[in-house]
Write a structure and sequence with these properties.
The chain is of the alpha+beta class and about 240 residues long. It contains six helices and eleven strands. About 35% of the residues lie in helices and about 25% in strands. The strands form three sheets. Strands 6, 7, 8, 9 and 10 form a five-stranded antiparallel beta sheet that branches. Strands 1-2-4-3 form a four-stranded antiparallel beta sheet. Mean pLDDT is about 85; it is low at about 1-15.
Length: about 240
């Protein structure tokens, strides 16, 4: 009676599709005289199932530390659109936006991230890197953006094969206790400790483990579809 599918990420078209789909089948043996009633019940059941699935997926994504905005990008869509009904009603959970789709897909399947454009390393920002400031000024968090921010080059320190760090020299801790500033003559005269700060870790690749269990949530709601259809069926029918 029910089916749910996940579409693997690949092409741009796939990245615009649903994460999960719930659909109905095996209703065409229903007598013609009650098909209209049946179609209304089936459609109502699919809508309730899809809505419940979407809300639980949002709650799960929030619990896994994805904040509020990204989980709320999940939208439930049902076919046919109201007020139409169908014995072949279907529902989908669709992320709003291609970037949201890619994030959810990656965190559902797990991915390995490799350098782009023939690069040898990924630059992973440490907690010392002023990510918010870099995004605000340069719209990216990268070693070139950080070098432009501080007006000096990062220094690469090899730790072992396959692992290195990028250090920004001649910095002092900000008086606010958050972040670092250039060690100017005035700041040095204040006897503030001059430090070399690790800003990026260089690795050949990074693995993102699967954190979201959307499939198990979909299985539970797919199993509930028959009872939700039954609940929507008029008692007199």
């Amino acid at each position: 009676m029910t089916d749910y599918t996940t579409r693997p990420y690949g092409s741009p078209k796939a990245a615009q599709g649903p994460l999960l789909r719930i659909e109905t089948s095996d209703f065409f043996a229903i007598p013609k005289e009650i098909r209209e009633i049946a179609a209304a019940a089936v459609t109502a059941g699919v809508r309730a199932t899809t809505r419940g699935l979407t809300l639980e997926m949002r709650q799960h994504a929030h619990a896994m530390g994805l904040g509020d905005k990204l989980p709320n990008a999940l939208r439930d869509v049902t076919y046919p659109k109201a007020p139409k009904n169908s014995l072949r009603a279907a529902g989908e959970v669709v992320p709003n936006g291609r970037n949201a789709w890619r994030i959810f897909d990656a965190m559902t399947r797990g991915v390995t991230i490799a350098p782009k454009n023939g690069g040898q390393f990924l630059a992973l920002p440490t907690e010392n890197c002023p990510e918010a400031l870099l995004r605000a000024r340069f719209r990216e968090v990268s070693p070139p953006a950080l070098e432009e921010l501080y007006g000096r080059k990062l220094r690469i320190v090899n730790i072992r094969p396959g692992l290195a760090i990028m250090v920004m020299d001649d910095l002092v801790a900000a008086k606010s206790g958050r972040g670092f500033k250039k060690a100017t003559k005035r700041r040095r005269a204040q006897k503030r400790e001059v430090k070399s700060i690790v800003m990026f870790i260089l690795v050949p690749y990074a693995s993102l483990r699967a954190r979201l269990q959307f499939r198990s949530i979909a299985e539970r709601w797919a199993d509930r579809l028959p009872e939700l259809i039954d609940a929507a069926w008029p008692e007199a029918a």
